[in-house]
């Protein structure tokens, strides 16, 4: 049997549907694992407010008073992602209550997480179908699997935040624009593609980086005048959708537009631990995004991606599409190599990974064609590809802490002074249930670090409320009977670290990965929780909010 006969061609759309359903089932089945991350309450709460006001006011939703009140404190991002989170949170709230009981915070973040899980399923299906359509079934299967096998990408799909949404809408906008340029009637096709770009614009500011890529692709595929015309139609359609979809911009447009553009620059700096040193986000070395791109995807998948790049370069005259994908990948680390704020490892450039998954699929399909002429070779190659999912399985539910073999895994990353955890996901239900089991009613519990007022309250579970405990922010850390610690070292105050080291507390539980502690639960006797430092320093512990 020849390599071409090794796998029968499979309809790309059907392959995409199967891949998407598989990804969706896997994500939904594991949705409850990670702890509450820093941004989830900040994104789910506005979405619930949007849905509640629309249900209550109908078309009155668009009255100036309502719009001003609704968006005033959350206009740093456009509203689409928060709409999706709010709709999911409200829609699945009854099921969450039925399965797990009421959420004492009223946020129902777990229900909101269904929306990014479904977006991730759609993204995997999209990547599978597009890779299969262009390069065959093997490429489609490898592309879909590689996206699932990227532990940090899979972890983000579980979180009620905006990052998976922008990864999906960015990829959708890029692929539809590329296909529209090549269509028989590019102008109407580009108008339709522009509306999808508008959805990406309504998700996160990242989508404004797409026009140069789309214009470059159009100039490669069409005559210059024609290219400028179709891209102009695409651009107008996208901006129109963006403006219509965000009522905040309808009034005081120039002022609010300027403020929106300033959110990426004029903001509180985030502290980042990078190779043993704490940096401000605008001062990080240029190689930070390149390092995290290299270190957060399994090594053999990286190798397949390099093969895909080589194949794409060699075949660029016949098929320049791989170079478009490569350009879309390089754009983000190039941008974040400047003084543009970057932090949280891979999170701010998550849209590069679907394109990289497609290049991995292209590379793996080339390897398959060359080496899979025998059954033993096919089994070996398939086994190696499947084995790349080990990282996703081994790091669950803390996939955001994954580092690949180039770094030496999480343990060596810790020794090198890299962030082992950054978003609070390791303060999970296992640790909180242990706290609820051990703590006495009314005892003081503090969470550190906390990056905005009320983060502790948002982390409180029903089991804790039943014991008359509401988690407080790190202002209470020096007088608390119990400390919940997330090991984000760049934000742990020295006074808290000193209290942990003074020998009077007892570490009663940890959450660890590969021997590296990510979160801890500490108990302090009452006589050790009332110190002079409490009054002197207790009000100055809050870290800057992101």
Tell me the number of helical segments per DSSP (H or I, 4 or more residues long): 26
Biggest sheet details: 4 strands, mixed
The assigned structural class equals: alpha+beta
Query: What percentage of the residues does DSSP assign to strands (E)?
Result: 5-15%
Shape: globular
Report mean pLDDT, rounded to a whole number.
Answer: 93
How is the largest sheet built, in terms of strand order?
Answer: 3-4-6-5
If you compute it from the alpha carbons, what radius of gyration comes out, rounded to the nearest whole angstrom? Answer: 24 Å
- Gap between N and C termini: 57 Å
How much helicity do the residues have? Answer: 55-70%
Query: What's the β-strand tally?
Result: 6
Poorly predicted sequence stretches spanning 5 or more consecutive residues: 1-6, 528-546
């Amino acid at each position: 049997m020849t390599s071409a006969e090794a796998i029968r061609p499979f309809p790309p759309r059907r392959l995409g549907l199967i891949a998407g359903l598989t990804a969706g089932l896997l994500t939904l089945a594991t949705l409850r694992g990670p702890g509450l991350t820093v941004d989830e309450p900040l994104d789910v709460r506005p979405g619930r407010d949007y849905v509640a006001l629309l249900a209550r006011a109908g078309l009155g939703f668009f009255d100036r008073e309502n719009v001003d009140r609704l968006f005033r404190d959350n206009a740093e991002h456009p509203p689409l992602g928060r709409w999706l989170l709010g709709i999911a949170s409200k829609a699945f709230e009854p099921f969450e209550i039925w399965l797990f009981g009421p959420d004492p915070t009223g946020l129902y973040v777990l229900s909101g997480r269904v929306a990014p899980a479904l977006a991730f399923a759609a993204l995997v299906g999209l990547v599978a179908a597009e890779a299969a359509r262009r390069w065959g079934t093997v490429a489609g299967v490898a592309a879909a699997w590689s996206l699932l096998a990227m532990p940090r990408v899979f972890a983000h799909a579980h979180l009620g935040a905006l990052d998976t949404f922008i990864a999906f809408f960015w990829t959708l906008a890029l692929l539809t624009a590329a296909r529209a340029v090549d269509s028989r009637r590019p102008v109407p096709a580009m108008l339709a593609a522009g509306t999808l770009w508008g959805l990406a614009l309504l998700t996160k500011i990242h989508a404004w980086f797409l026009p140069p890529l789309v214009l470059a692709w159009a100039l490669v595929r069409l005559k210059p005048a024609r290219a400028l015309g179709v891209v102009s139609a695409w651009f107008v359609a996208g901006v129109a959708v963006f403006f219509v979809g965000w009522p905040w911009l309808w009034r005081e447009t120039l002022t609010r537009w300027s403020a929106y553009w300033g959110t990426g620059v004029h903001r509180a700096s985030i502290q980042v631990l990078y190779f043993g040193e704490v940096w401000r986000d605008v001062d990080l070395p240029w190689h930070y995004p390149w390092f995290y791109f290299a270190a957060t995807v399994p090594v053999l998948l990286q190798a397949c991606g390099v093969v895909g790049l080589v194949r794409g370069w060699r075949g660029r005259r016949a098929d320049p599409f791989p170079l478009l994908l490569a350009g879309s990948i390089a754009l983000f680390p190039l941008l974040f190599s400047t003084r543009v704020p970057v932090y949280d490892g891979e999170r701010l450039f998550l849209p590069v990974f679907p394109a990289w998954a497609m290049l991995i699929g292209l590379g793996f399909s080339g390897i398959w064609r060359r080496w899979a002429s025998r059954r033993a070779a096919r089994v070996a190659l398939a086994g190696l590809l499947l084995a790349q999912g080990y990282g996703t399985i081994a790091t669950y539910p803390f996939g955001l802490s994954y580092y690949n073999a180039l770094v030496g895994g999480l343990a060596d990353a810790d020794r090198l002074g890299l962030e082992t955890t950054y978003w609070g996901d390791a303060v999970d239900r296992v640790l909180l249930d242990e706290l609820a089991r051990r703590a006495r009613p009314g005892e003081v519990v503090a969470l550190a670090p906390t990056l905005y007022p009320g983060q502790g309250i948002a982390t409180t579970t029903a089991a804790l409320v039943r014991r008359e405990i509401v988690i407080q922010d790190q202002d209470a850390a020096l007088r608390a009977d119990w400390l919940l610690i997330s090991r984000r070292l760049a934000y742990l105050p020295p006074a808290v670290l000193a209290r942990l080291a003074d020998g009077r507390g007892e570490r009663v539980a940890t959450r660890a990965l590969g021997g590296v502690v990510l979160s801890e639960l500490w108990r302090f006797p009452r006589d050790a929780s009332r110190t002079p430092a409490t009054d002197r320093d207790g009000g100055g512990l809050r870290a800057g909010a992101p």
